[in-house]
Each structure stands twice: as structure tokens, then as C-alpha cells.
Amino acid sequence: MTTAHELTKNQTLVFNTLSRADGPLSAYTILDQLRGDGFRAPLQVYRALEKLLDYGMVHRLESINAFVACAHPHNHSHSHGMTAFAICEKCGQVSEFSDDVITQRVRQWTTDNGFKQTKTTIEIRGVCAACGTA
Amino acid sequence: MTTAHELTKNQTLVFNTLSRADGPLSAYTILDQLRGDGFRAPLQVYRALEKLLDYGMVHRLESINAFVACAHPHNHSHSHGMTAFAICEKCGQVSEFSDDVITQRVRQWTTDNGFKQTKTTIEIRGVCAACGTA
DNA sequence: TCTCGATATGTGATGTTATTACATTAGTCA
DNA sequence: TGACTAATGTAATAACATCACATATCGAGA
């Protein structure tokens, strides 16, 4: 299951950019950071992101149109659980967590309602502890 | 508590458009539907939506950049739990529900982590019962 | 080796979503 | 009236994402 994916050149560049960043980046920010490496067009970024999302190495934050490297790189122990994100609106930091009870309750609802789930987004917006006390 | 908000002309037009729709609409779709009523620019829609979101009469679906009239018109009191949405990718129908356990678990995490939550998004993408059996 | 097919890449144009900036209008109230 | 506030009108632009088409790269057979 946990295959180590061979990344292509562009995928590697995009993934490294996200890994080095200390918060989520938009596709266009990634593009700008990779101009020096020959990137010229948005599609180069979006295509790489698509694969990285497939591989589970990157997450998309729907509520801010941004992307972030997965916080649990080689640990897929939570891979059948849904991942939730807490996004600080002050500093931009994202905390990733997974809660079995939430996963369970969502599954409960989908089962009860015959809904075939493909992807679930859970994003909490607010102010993180560090920014809240500052 | 549940104040009936006086809606302005544009807010009323936008809200009625969303209410009549049998699924979520994008801001630009709303705009097109209201051209006959004098709407000319996106901002007219976005400004109305902003207020309607404030009033809790409309929800924004982050994962599809669209808006939908609240399914529970009367008691929109914020003290109730977080609202989750199941969005069918076949027919576009949205089911709105609220789960106390999920609300509880999210609050638990935010409390434990000193995160001051302002807004939470829970969106399930997939195929609804009707489309799944069809 | 050559050719085929699959995958990856390059590039410009276009489509879609959202905001900024500034002008105008309408209602409230001292 | 005048001054203040909320709502509206409009153009331009910013931000996010995809389409269409050309080219390149690489591995599996003939």
C-alpha cells in the first residue's frame, strides 16, 4: 500500500517547495518560487499538484485555495481516517489532525443516507494558540 | 433572538434566486440570472451574499465555490452545532446536516490546542443515494 | 534498433472566481 | 439643512484554474 512514489522532476520541485514552506502556498506562489527552475505556466504547477494529491503527499485547503505538504509523510496509519485542518488566520500556520470519532460519525451519516463518499473536507478557521496569546 | 432581517433590494433578489434554485449556484450564475433585474457586476452579488452569509441565511460551499440557501430557514441561531454538507457530484444536490458529536469533537480539539475557532467547514463530496442507484 | 504507446512537459490563450477603487444615491437624524 | 451612514453602480484588475495543442521522454515489444 504505502508505495514510495517516484516523483518526476516537476513533481519533485513542487513538493520540495511545499515542504520547505512553513505554511500553505497558493499554486501561483509556488509558480513564482519555481521561475528560477524554469517554470513558466500555472499548468506546470497544477499538474504536479494533481499527482501529489493523488499520492497523498500534499493536501488542498479548499477554504483558502492553497496547498500544503502532508504533515505525516511516511505514516499512513491514519490513512483511512479523515484529515482535519486548523488554519490560523493570523500567521497562516496549519495543524493537521485526524479524529476517529469524527470519521466514524461522518461514515455513519453517509451510510444512513446511502451517500457514497469520495472526499471529505474538514477545515477549521480561527486563531492559533500562539497568535491568540500574543 | 432569531431576528428577521430586513433585506435590501439586492439582498432579496439574491436570496430569492438561491431559494428557487434546486442546488448551489456560483456568484456568476446568480449574476446572470439577475441581469434582467438590473444587475451588471459581480460585486452586486458578492455584497449581497456577504450580508446573507452574516445573517446565516446562506451558506458558502468552499469546495465548489458556490452558495446555497440555508435548509433550516427559521432557527439559524449560531449556538447550534456546526453544519456539514454532503454534495453530490452527479446531480449537484446538497444535503445539510448537523451532528452534535462532530461539533463536540471539533470543540474538544480546539480547546485542547488553544485554537480560537471562528468558522468550520465540513463538506463531503460523493454521489448521493438517488444517483448511486440510478 | 525502430516504432508504438503512455506519460510528462512546454506554452499561449482562455475561462472562472473574487476584490479594489472610486463615484453616486438614499435614508437617518441632530 | 448638513452631516453621517448604509447601500448601490461601475470599471478595472487580481487571483485561481483549465483548455487546446505541440513537443519530448522513456520503456516495452517487433
Description:
The structure is a homodimer of 134-residue chains. The first copy, chain A, has helices at residues 9-20, 27-33, 42-54, 100-112, 129-133; strands at residues 58-61, 66-69, 83-88, 94-98, 116-127. Chain A is α+β, with helices and mostly antiparallel strands and 134 residues long. Chain A has one domain (9-127): Orthogonal Bundle (Arc Repressor Mutant, subunit A). In chain A, helix 1 (9-20) crosses helix 3 and helix 2 packs across helix 3. Chain A is globular, with a radius of gyration of 16 Å. The N and C termini of chain A lie far apart (43 Å). Chains A and B meet through strand 3, helix 4, strand 5 and helix 5 of A and strand 3, helix 4, strand 5 and helix 5 of B. The first copy, chain A, binds a DNA duplex (30 and 30 nucleotides) through residues 8-11, 26-28, 38, 40-44, 46-47, 65. Chains A, B: Zn(2+) binds at residues 88, 91, 128, 131. Chains A, B: One of its GO terms (biological process) is regulation of secondary metabolite biosynthetic process. Chains A, B: It is found in: Cytoplasm.
